[in-house]
# Entry
Amino acid sequence: MSNQEATASAIDHLRTILPQDGTRDALIHSVIPNLLQSIADVAQALRNSHQVSAAGTANTFGDDQLNVDVIAENIIRATIAQCPSIVTASSEEDPIEQAVEHHATSSSSEQYTLAFDPLDGSSIISANWTVGAIFSLWDGPSALNQDPATRQIVSILGVFGPRTTAIVALRVSGSPVPKTCLELALGPAVSNPTSATVTTPTKWHLTAPTLTLAPRSKYFSPANLRMAADDPAYMTLLTSFITRRYTLRYAGGLVPDIVHMLVQGQGVYVSPVLAGGDGSRGQASKPKLRRLYELCPLALVVECAGGAAVDPVDGTAVLAREVKDCGERGGLLCGGREEVVEVVKTLLS
Amino acid sequence: MSNQEATASAIDHLRTILPQDGTRDALIHSVIPNLLQSIADVAQALRNSHQVSAAGTANTFGDDQLNVDVIAENIIRATIAQCPSIVTASSEEDPIEQAVEHHATSSSSEQYTLAFDPLDGSSIISANWTVGAIFSLWDGPSALNQDPATRQIVSILGVFGPRTTAIVALRVSGSPVPKTCLELALGPAVSNPTSATVTTPTKWHLTAPTLTLAPRSKYFSPANLRMAADDPAYMTLLTSFITRRYTLRYAGGLVPDIVHMLVQGQGVYVSPVLAGGDGSRGQASKPKLRRLYELCPLALVVECAGGAAVDPVDGTAVLAREVKDCGERGGLLCGGREEVVEVVKTLLS
# Structure
């Protein structure tokens, strides 16, 4: 791919993937561009929040770390208010579906529900490790009691690292491309010579039009590793990865860990749940990941890249089960399709 | 610590740590500020290098990834040329000590040798994970055949993540503070209203004046994990971490992995070498880390934070042995002092 092609307008590219019949115009021209802009704005806010670096150290800036979550939430909420087609929203910080009050009205009949995690990776942001934001769009006025496989149509991951990148996964029925997963990157900042303030960089470049996951892998990401102390099957799995000389990558942030897999084109991520994982066998056995804000969006991303995302408890697809409540949690096993099948066998043996 | 104190000039703070007798004026007023500025400049260059994101994927931008290394090297080389007191330099990209040609002359009698790794973490930069730069300053015209414990006086780690931060470790004899390890963070960008170009953010804030490592830890970072397939002692160590419910964090980049430890105030990092580790037992057994560009600078950082950094082969301090050649490699075991002693016992048992 030439440099010129790579920097073609990302939105122009999305237009070619989505239905051309006008039924998704608000999605293409308002919702997705605004969410991408909010990622750019959160990235800039994080760069300027230098005090978060001290969180967790002796000079406790614990509140500052919390402030970063709040800043990200506020930026995204302000963005949502600009999108009349997002009629309902909830976030990991405020996990209740609420109707959105808009600054503008729209003649569009499109109605979407947004579920988002404004800043995923709070345990690693103090060390200045890459963190992320997670967005998922559902058709209609609620994400609850819906079929995730057909009603959750878009996931966007914002990746805040040395660069600002975004993964966009789309599975919109009636599209010329049934499903796709692509990567965008924010280009150079552009300043406005007539303004004293630096303008936010807004140019997204299409850097990878098709991210795919190979069926098998040589990378593994074992989450909640402490659980292996109580779960012989998980310990067996780990030993098997090591003896088969897999390469370990585990940031401990869901977004960077899944994005590593997508960019490498291979990988397997395991966040298991102890049988009867209700926490009765200690903190490590509690499921950690939120179904609405983490599992469903990430599962769509992985499936759109040709991989599989399943519940490690029984091997069923994450997207096979409706979300009944914003607070639901679960485990996650995802990655290349063959790899996932094998790991399920090991974990359930 | 108040916000006002936290944003006190970082250089003003360094001035209070270093000798006040004029013998380190060039170090304080020229060398360290210029190296910090080069970190800011590399950070900006990385943010604008959006194409690196595609490296490692099907649409191969492999050359672009290499370009990022070259861009960082060039920025730092240009900085060095501004510092008459840096008389010799070598880098991981060009591992030969060479006299520096300067743009300016100096009346200072101070002479330093700089060893640097312009961009550490090439395997994870395509995934937009945090990467780093490593700088170490040695007294005199060479880093070779010198006592690292006394002649290597400053290490600086540039951390390129959601923010831009830097770890500065100093152990300069005759200083009011014998050794210290601190964290800086780059503050908000400042634009020049009379210019059409965005000016580089240059304001470093002191965010953590004293980073310390607790003697014991609950975090572990196991590098070169595949080696455990051949080394029962390493496998025993891993099993021990898991059963004692340590938390895994392993980015696979030396800078982010050590910085995580420093910011959390605890941790243990293990990059072992197989007994007789000459590569004859396969790729995994070869020592990976460069002594001059990685091990010595990181060991100074860890020691200045009160931790220990030893050779996993025999448990001797990394800084106890001179660097004879720019290409030397080795393993690394570092972290809290008690933790390191215990791990040595396990690895050598």
Observations:
- Chain B touches chain A through 78 residues (CB under 8 Å).
- Chain B is about 30% helix and 25% strand.
